[in-house]
Each structure stands twice: as C-alpha cells, then as structure tokens.
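Duplicate of #3305? Posting structure anyway:
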C-alpha cells in the first residue's frame, strides 16, 4: 500500500483503531476475502437492487479483496453491477466471481442482500421493505417480503450490513460491539420492532427550492439517495472545499482521481445532474457568504439539507429560516439527524440545539478524560500508560486505570469518555476518524425526515434522532425533543420568520409547504 492509498483509508482505519484500541494491521485486514452476494428473490425487487448497488459503493472503501457473485439471469442488474465494478473506487481487488461455485471456508466474510444466512460462516444478511431496514448474522433469517420500494430503507440496510462486515474484517471484539444477530429498524416511526413497512412513496415528488449544504461524506449519501427518487425541482449545492485523497475512504460517490483537487460542490452537482431530473447548480464557498449571494437570492429556498461537520456553519444555515431544515451529523461511530420545522415550534432550531464548541478541543478532551495536557499533546495513537494516569486529574484516575487494563490507546480513551458521557454527536476538530457507512446512515435518516416533512405531515415529529452507535445496530436508537431556548431568534423572531416564510411561499406561487406537490 502506498502513502496515497494509506491516506485514502486513514479515516475508516481510525474508526477501527478506536474500536479495537490498538493500531490496525492493515496488511492482514485488507487481505481478507469478502464475498458480496444475494438471493434471487430479493435481488429481483427494486429494494434488493438498490441495496446491492449501495453495498457495492460502500464495501470497496473498507475491504481489500472483494468478489461479487450474483445469480444468473438478473438482466439489467447484472449490467449495472458490472458497470459499477468497473468504475467504483476500491482499496485493492474488486472482481466478479461465479455464483455457482458456492462459498468456501477460505472466504472470511460474506455480505448477502437476501433473506437466508449460514451459521457455519461469518455471514451478514441484509434487506429492506418500505421504511424498514433489516440485518441478520449467525444463521438468523430475514423476512422475504421486500416488495415495497423505498431507497431510504435500502440504503440504511446497506449501511448496517457494511457496519457488520467492518466489525468482522477489523476483528472488533464482541465486548466492544457484539454482532447484531437480528435487527430491524423503521425510518418512518423509528421503531426497532416495526409492525408494518410504513406508507408507500409517491411515484414523483417535486422539491421546493432546496439547498444542500456540505458535499462531503454525508452530502454524498444525500446525493446518492436523491438520484434514486423520481424528483423534480431546483437544488443548489454548497461546499467550501475541494475533494482530497482522504475522502475516497468515506465518500460513497467519489470514484475517480478527476474529482481530487476539484470543488466538492461542483463534482457532486455534475454527478447528480447526470442521474436525476433535478435542476442542480453548485457554488463553492462558506454558507455564511453564499447565503446572501445572487444564486441563493434568486431561489425561494424553503428546504435546507445540511451535511456539515462544524457548528458555526450549522448556525449560519439556520439563518435562512426555511420551512424545513434537516441536519445530518456523524461522529466516528454514530449517525444522527436534527430537524427544525416552522410547523413544529416546540422543537429547537439549530442555533439553540448546537452550541459553538470551545476552539480548543484539547480543553474538552482533558475535561472529559481527566488526562493532562502533556498526555493529550503526545501521539494519541499510543497506548495509555501509568504515567498518564499519575498526571491525570485525581477523580478520573480509577476510570483511567480501567482503560489501562483494557489496553486502550489515548484516542480510544477519549472516545470512550465522550460516549460514556453521552456527548453523542459532538464534533471534533482536526483529524476525524470516519466511516462511509456511518455517513450514508445519516443521509438515510435525513432523507427520511425530508419525506416525512414534505409528504407525510401526520408522521410523528422527532426533533432529534440518533443511531448513537451503528456498530451496535438499531438497539442504539435514541429519539429526543429539545425545546427551543426562549432567548433564541427562533422564539423571539418567530413572527418575522413566519411572515417571511409566507411571503416566500407566495413568491413561489404556493408551490411550497402545504402545497408541496407529490403527484401520486
Ligand atoms: Zn433556536
């Protein structure tokens, strides 16, 4: 592996190191043989097709040797699979194999988009039906009913499945993240034992004028999903950065070197334009300045989708005061979504949900772990030592001793402290360990909330939802409602905000909000 490849896989590797508590042996991990396969009954459905192609976009970013085996006679799907194999970015080997050969014992992991699995092999099975995503391991089977097409459920199933594969190839200990033997999750009502697949989708949806703010890993997942719906409307994509090599490991649509060094917003807009009926435009810049620029001013923006990794940009995006603002968020292990809707004033806006973090991340790390600045200024990938504990804050020493006994690195200790304190989606500055399937899980949650806001206003409003640890599966689901801060503009300026929204609606010819069109 050369240094460029190493950079490309650095973020997912960082997640693995956090989970296993020591450096990853990349040669060993990436030499493992993974088979991506499926059952015909599921692959012939639209959900099976989407889920399989989603897996094929995610898996080559975390596994090194992948063989794809699908049954004969799947027609168009086989062509799509071959085309994607030819174009998708991969760490090392990605090739078509023969379905008939059967799975031999020398295969280290099997990911199947289907319904049956085998107990004698490290086998992960996923599928979806409507809003329900399903995952099973250890010989557990899944329902065969995958008839109600919904790209959101399919992408969540793929995300959960690749998370299970990740645990197997990186050998994450079961005391850190035991296998999800059987999990189901509805993105409609967030139930982990859903009784029905939720409402079926209309054939066509017209979006209000929409901004996608952030074209990184979450933005890639959002664009992938938008391409899987029959949508029309205007979408403007904003991002301040260019793609870099490190994004290969986390961005589901980043396939070629031609995107490296180019505007994230432009690349993603070009990709989506080619695969969607949406009118897509792009702009490179900070949301704070783009917000008052000509492009945004020429639109009646009433829906904002955020895929951001910093609080100030979230605060700036909120100042557009759209009828619906959906904010995806990730950390190394968890995916979340925060929604602000003008028709639900009981929920906090982004400005009173997220407080601007201290500029100095080390201060926070020191506060949560008790470790001294001297320890935190050293290499965070090294194991915790007795000297670290002696220089740490006294009240945290017993907890740190337990981490020492577990052989944790400094990095893993910080993560453990943050997750035990329930800080959830607290974003760190600088190097961010990150996994592509966590970002796509966040994107699935976002587009689910978008559909609920646009098409199913009767669905229960959830201001904040997290799959706090994707490696624990649906059982880590946490929904919450944060009420607004009475001193925040969302409360003090509500009349003005509602007035502006009504005018915006009028300008766009009653095309938005209560008349969002969905031609069933
Ligand atoms: Zn607020």
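Output from current build:
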């Amino acid at each position: 592996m050369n240094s460029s490849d190493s950079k490309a896989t650095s973020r997912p590797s960082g997640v693995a190191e956090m989970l296993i508590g020591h450096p990853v042996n990349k040669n060993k991990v990436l030499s493992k043989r993974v088979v991506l396969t499926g059952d015909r009954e599921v692959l012939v459905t639209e959900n099976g097709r989407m889920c399989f192609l989603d897996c094929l976009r995610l898996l080559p970013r975390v596994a090194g040797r992948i063989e794809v085996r699908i049954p004969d006679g799947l027609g168009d799907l086989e062509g799509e699979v071959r085309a994607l194999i030819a174009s998708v970015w991969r760490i090392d080997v990605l090739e078509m194999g023969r379905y008939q050969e059967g799975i031999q014992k020398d295969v280290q992991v099997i990911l199947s988009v289907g319904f049956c699995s085998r107990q004698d092999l490290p086998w992960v099975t996923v599928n979806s039906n409507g809003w329900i995503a399903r995952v099973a391991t250890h010989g557990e089977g899944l329902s065969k009913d995958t008839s109600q097409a919904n790209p959101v459920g399919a992408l969540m199933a793929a995300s959960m499945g690749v998370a299970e594969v990740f645990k197997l190839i990186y050998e994450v200990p079961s005391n850190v993240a035991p296998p999800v033997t059987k999990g189901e999750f509805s993105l409609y009502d967030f139930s982990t034992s859903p009784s029905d697949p939720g409402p079926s989708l209309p054939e066509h949806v017209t979006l209000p004028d929409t901004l996608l703010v952030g074209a990184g890993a979450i933005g890639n997942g959002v664009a992938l999903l938008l391409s899987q719906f029959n949508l029309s409307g205007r979408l403007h994509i904003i991002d301040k950065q260019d793609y870099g090599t490190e994004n290969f490991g986390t961005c589901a649509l980043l396939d070629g070197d031609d995107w490296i060094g180019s505007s994230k917003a432009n690349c993603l807009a070009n990709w989506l334009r080619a695969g969607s009926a949406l009118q897509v435009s792009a702009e490179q810049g900070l949301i704070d300045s783009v917000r008052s620029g000509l492009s945004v001013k020429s639109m009646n923006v009433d829906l904002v989708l955020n895929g951001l990794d910093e609080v100030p940009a979230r605060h700036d995006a909120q100042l557009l005061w759209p009828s619906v603002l959906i904010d995806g968020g990730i950390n190394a292990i968890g995916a979340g979504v925060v929604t602000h809707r003008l028709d639900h004033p009981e929920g906090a806006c982004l400005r009173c949900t997220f407080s601007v973090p201290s500029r100095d991340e080390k201060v926070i790390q020191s506060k949560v772990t008790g470790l001294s600045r001297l320890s935190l200024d050293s290499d965070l990938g090294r194991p915790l030592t007795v000297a670290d504990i002696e220089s740490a804050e006294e009240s945290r020493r017993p907890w740190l001793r337990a981490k020492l006994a577990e052989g944790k690195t400094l990095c893993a200790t910080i993560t453990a402290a943050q997750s035990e304190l329930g800080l959830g989606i607290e974003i760190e500055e600088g190097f961010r360990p990150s996994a592509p399937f966590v970002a796509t899980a966040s994107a699935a949650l976002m587009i689910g909330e978008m559909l609920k806001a646009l098409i199913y206003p009767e669905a229960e409003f959830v201001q904040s939802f997290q799959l706090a640890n994707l490696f624990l599966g649906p059982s880590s689901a946490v929904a919450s409602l944060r009420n607004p801060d009475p001193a925040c503009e969302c409360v003090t300026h509500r009349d003005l905000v509602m007035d502006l929204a009504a005018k915006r609606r009028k300008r766009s010819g009653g095309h938005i909000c209560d008349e969002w069109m969905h031609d069933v």
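Confirmed duplicate; merging threads. Residues 33 and 65 are 5 Å apart (CA to CA). The chain is about 35% helix and 15% strand.
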